[in-house]
Amino acid sequence: MSRGGTTGDEPESGAILSALGSKYSAEILCAAGTPKSAQALSDDIEIPIATCYRRIEELVDAGLLTCEGRQLSEEGRRTNIYRRTVDEIEIDFSNDQPEFSRKRRTEAKNRLQDQLED
């Protein structure tokens, strides 16, 4: 778990709070436990695709979602595939600045979950 504000490549706490505060962000993170395209996420949580793309961009910028690669869609177009980078986030507001505690997803967990999905 990581704590505190920004360290090196850690996103700023403001970016994380902003991303989490946006409508549908939590639903996208829950749905992105396995690799999914923006269209699949949009369909899963029944939101407009444009809104989904905006939330994905915010979540990627905040370090909560990552692009895992590209795959062909049913229409034959190359689409980005996204997966969440965290399983848990705790936010402590008791100090002057929010402090975050994150339980990051491990590559081993991703591989195991991918195998279970196949």
Q: What is the domain tally?
A: 1
- CATH fold-level label: Arc Repressor Mutant, subunit A
Broad structural category:
alpha+beta
The CATH superfamily appears as Winged helix-like DNA-binding domain superfamily/Winged helix DNA-binding domain
Q: Describe the main β-sheet briefly.
A: 3 strands, antiparallel
What percent of residues adopt helix (DSSP H or I)?
40-55%
Task: Give the helices and strands as they follow along the chain.
Answer: HHEHHEEEEH
CATH structural architecture? Orthogonal Bundle
How far apart are the termini? 29 Å
- Average pLDDT works out at 82
Record field, number of beta strands: 5
Low-confidence stretches: 1-8
